[in-house]
Amino acid sequence: MTSSSAIAARVRAGDVRAAARLMRDLDDRLPGAEATLRELLPHTGRAVVIGLTGPPGGGKSSLVDRLIAHHRRAGQTVGVLAVDPTSPFTGGAILGDRIRMQDHALDDGVFIRSLATRGHLGGLSRSAAALVAVMDAMGRNVILVETVGVGQDEVEVASLVRTVVVVAVPGLGDDVQAIKAGVLEIADVFAVNKADREGSDRVVRDLQLMLELRRTVRSGAVTARPSQREWTPPIVQTVAVKDQGTVELAGAIERHGAHLAASGEGRLREVQRARAGFVAILRERMLAGAIARLEEELGRLDAVAARIAAREVDPYQLADELAARLRG
């Protein structure tokens, strides 16, 4: 048995230490880690993967904590991938989310991994998909992915999870500022957290109006009714710190999963996730190959950048020439 096969076998047996080390090696892009991941991929696809995104301070970590408890009471094992901002000093995750989930630290049925964005945009980390696959292969029934929560463009989570929960919260000035544009489009379930605060009812009304407008645009007629196959994201009010609304939120997530299975949309989404994952891998490989070719022919990237900054070379022409040579 090869080293990668041995590690893969330990991960599939639920060995937390082996899984944690593999995750670290995958995030650090260490040699051999990818070979182990390849052995695990045929054993993935069984976990229910749920993403939570929304504004900072919205209580995503508290909601994740309550969902962990809910699924543990149901006898399910849980994996958590909490994507934190990158520390400017260490380059690692700040670990704020893990601190808020200390109630589950000693539970063998819960595996929590904090992951730094390392400058990656979109609310996730470049290694997020690989780490979710490891948790899946080690037998976690439910995997909760919490995005970093820094803006309105955290739509990448939709390409990784089965169900996207967008967390809104009253008191942000513009009560729906964090769920505009792309984030509204990816929502499968809305959680209006901190619903005991003034203004929560207004957030619910605004969300209902936005969903109605979206349905009208899609249908092309104000009087049209949604088809039986169309999913309208439910809006669930929660107070995570008081464990209020957790059961209702979990129920909405389960109903969405049932809808995906019954409508056939689940299979379509699975193909879309595979496509997005493959394109991401391909993009990374091609970029690495392009930079290697560039440095081989013209010197290190920093030196080339210095020439561009000095207006000695045309970056567009240089990129076109390099792309043409790679295609050749």
Look at the helices and sheets and give the structural class. alpha/beta
- Strand coverage percent: 5-15%
Number of domain units: 2
Q: Helical proportion?
A: 40-55%
Q: In CATH terms, what is the architecture of the largest domain? A: 3-Layer(aba) Sandwich
Poorly predicted ranges: 86-94, 119-124, 222-228
Give the helix tally. Answer: 12
Number of strands: 7
Q: What characteristic shape results from the CA principal axes? A: globular
Q: What name is given to the CATH topology of the largest domain?
A: Rossmann fold
Q: Which sheet architecture does the biggest sheet show?
A: 7 strands, parallel
CATH homology group of the largest domain:
P-loop containing nucleotide triphosphate hydrolases
How would you state the average pLDDT, rounded?
A: 84
Q: What is the CA-atom radius of gyration, in angstroms? A: 22 Å
CATH domain class of the largest domain = Alpha Beta
Straight-line N-to-C gap: 39 Å
How are the strands of the biggest sheet laid out side by side? 3-2-4-1-5-6-7
Can you write the helix and strand succession as a string? Answer: HHHEHEHEHEEHEHEHHHH
Summarize the topology.
Elements: H1 3-12, H2 16-27, H3 33-40, E1 48-53, H4 60-73, E2 78-84, H5 96-99, E3 110-116, H6 128-137, E4 142-146, E5 163-168, H7 181-186, E6 189-192, H8 200-219, E7 235-237, H9 246-263, H10 265-298, H11 301-309, H12 315-327
Parallel strand pairs: 1-4, 1-5, 2-3, 2-4, 5-6, 6-7
